[in-house]
Design brief:
With about 425 residues, the protein is α+β, with helices and mostly antiparallel strands. The protein is about 25% helix and about 30% strand. The termini are far apart.
Length: about 425
C-alpha cells in the first residue's frame, strides 16, 4: 500500500458500473495469532486483511464457543456503502456486521447469521438493507468451527461510486505519482503537487458506462482514435462524443491485480512508455497487452485507486485570492522597506528615533515571525500531510522563503532605528 498517501483515503478496486470495492486504510482486531513467542505477530496482524495477497489476519484460536472476536476496518474518507465482502481464510460459525459513520459509534447492519458453507475458506458478501454512510466496519465472529480459528484474507467495502485518484505503481524519488488530466493530456505528476494545485486535475470518477471522468474538466480518459498501434496514446476526449463512437475507447475497469484494463478493446491495459517510466521521467500513458504489461518488473502497469472526498473548487479559489492579497502585501512591504532604508540616515536628526522606541514597532513582526517558526516546526514530522501543505504555497504563486526573508529584514531595520 502506498504509505505517503495513507492520510488521504482508502485504496479501491473497482468493477466499472454501479459499485466499487473499496479497501480499508487501517485495521485492528480483538485477537491475533501469536507466531512462536511473538505475541500479535505482524505475519497475522489485522492489517494483513487490508488487501489480498500472501498474508492474512488470524485470531489466536483460544476463544471459547460463545466468545466473540472482532476485526475492524477503518476508512480515511467516509463512503456510501452497500455492503462488505469478506474473503475468509478461516470462516466462523456465526458472524454479524456493524458499521460506523464516525469511526467511533457503531450500529448493527447485519444481525447474527450462521454460516451455510462447510469450506474452511471462501468469499462471502454481506449486503446492507439500505445504503449507509460508512467510516468503519466491524466484523464480529463467534462459534469457531473444527479448525478453531477465525481468519480473513481480505475485507473490502462494497460502495457506491465515488471520486478517486489513480496512483501509479512505479517508484520515484519525488514521491508517489498520480495520473492527472490537464487540458487534453493525461500524464503522471507527483500526487502532492497535483493536490496542492487545487484544480482537481488528479480527481476522477467512474460513470455508469465505465468511463473515467475527469471531475475538474468533465472530459473522459480515452485511447486516441481507438488506435492501439505502437501503444497508441491515452488523452482526454468529450465523454458523449467518444461514447457514441461505440468502439470502447473510453471504457475502463480496474482488475483485481490493479491493472487498468480496456475491456471492450480486447486484452489491453494502460501502462507507461519508456525505459525511464520506473523513475517517473517518462510519463506517456499508452496501452499494451495486459499479460505483457504485467511482465514488467517496475509496476508501470499498476494503478491504485485512492478514494478522496468530492472535489470542492471553492477552497482552492479562496486560497488563490488570499495568495494574491499576500503577494500584494509583500510587494508593498518591500517598497516601504526600501524607503525606510533610504530615510534611515536622517531619522535621528528628525527626532524619530525616540518616538519609535516608545511605540516598540517590532512587536507585531516579532510575533508574526515567531508564529511562522512555530507553524513550521509543528509541520515538521507530520510526514506526507506537512509535505502537502508545504506544496500549496508555491502552487498558488507564493514564495514563503522570500516572504520570511523580507519580514526578517523589516524586523531588523525597525530594531536598528529603535535602539
Amino acid at each position: 500500500m502506498h504509505k505517503a498517501l495513507i492520510f488521504f483515503s482508502g485504496i479501491a478496486l473497482v468493477a466499472a458500473g454501479s459499485q466499487q470495492y473499496v479497501a480499508f486504510d487501517a485495521a485492528s482486531a480483538s485477537s491475533t495469532y501469536s507466531a512462536g513467542n511473538l505475541a500479535g505477530s505482524p505475519a497475522f496482524a489485522a492489517q494483513q486483511a487490508l488487501s489480498g495477497g500472501s498474508g492474512y489476519w488470524c485470531s489466536s484460536g483460544s476463544q471459547a464457543a460463545g466468545q466473540s472476536v472482532t476485526w475492524t476496518g477503518v476508512l480515511n474518507s467516509r463512503r456510501v456503502a452497500l455492503g462488505v465482502k469478506v474473503d475468509w481464510a478461516y470462516a466462523p460459525g456465526e458472524v454479524k456486521v456493524l458499521t460506523s459513520s464516525d469511526g467511533a459509534n457503531f450500529e448493527e447492519a447485519k444481525c447474527w447469521q450462521s454460516s451455510t458453507r462447510t469450506e474452511v475458506a471462501f468469499e462471502e458478501s454481506f449486503m446492507f438493507d439500505a445504503p449507509r454512510n460508512v467510516k468503519a466496519v466491524s466484523i464480529t465472529m463467534r462459534s469457531p468451527q473444527s479448525w478453531g480459528y477465525f481468519g480473513i484474507n481480505s475485507a473490502v467495502l462494497v460502495a457506491e461510486p465515488g471520486p478517486f485518484m489513480l496512483v501509479s505503481g512505479i517508484s520515484s524519488a519525488g514521491g508517489e505519482q498520480c495520473l492527472v488530466a490537464s487540458g487534453s493530456t493525461v500524464h503522471l505528476e507527483p500526487c502532492l503537487d497535483a493536490v496542492a494545485a487545487g484544480d482537481g486535475r488528479e480527481v476522477m470518477q467512474f460513470d455508469g458506462d465505465g468511463q473515467i471522468v475527469s471531475v475538474a474538466g468533465g472530459s473522459c480518459l480515452a485511447l486516441v482514435d481507438g488506435d492501439t498501434s505502437g501503444g497508441g496514446a491515452i488523452a482526454t476526449d468529450a465523454c458523449s462524443a467518444s461514447t457514441e463512437s461505440g468502439d470502447g475507447r473510453t471504457v475502463f475497469s480496474i482488475t483485481s491485480n490493479a491493472q487498468l484494463k480496456m475491456p471492450r478493446l480486447g486484452n489491453y491495459c494502460v501502462t507507461l512508455a519508456g525505459e525511464g517510466a520506473a523513475r517517473a521521467t517518462s510519463t506517456r500513458a499508452i496501452v499494451q497487452d495486459c499479460v505483457e504489461a504485467e511482465d514488467n518488473t517496475d509496476a508501470r502497469d499498476k494503478f491504485f485507486m485512492v478514494a478522496v472526498p468530492a472535489f470542492d473548487p471553492s477552497s482552492a479559489s479562496a486560497a488563490k485570492q488570499r495568495a494574491a492579497l499576500l503577494s500584494a502585501a509583500q510587494e508593498h512591504l518591500g517598497g516601504l522597506l526600501a524607503e525606510l532604508y533610504a530615510a534611515m540616515p536622517s531619522l535621528a536628526a528628525c527626532g524619530f528615533k525616540a518616538s519609535f522606541a516608545k511605540r516598540t514597532p517590532t512587536t507585531m513582526l516579532v510575533h508574526h515571525q515567531g508564529l511562522s517558526g512555530r507553524m513550521g516546526a509543528s509541520a515538521q514530522g507530520q510526514g506526507a500531510r506537512s509535505a502537502a501543505v508545504a506544496a500549496v504555497a508555491p502552487s498558488v504563486g507564493v514564495d514563503m522563503e522570500a516572504l520570511r526573508g523580507l519580514v526578517t529584514k523589516a524586523r531588523e531595520a525597525l530594531a536598528q532605528i529603535s535602539q
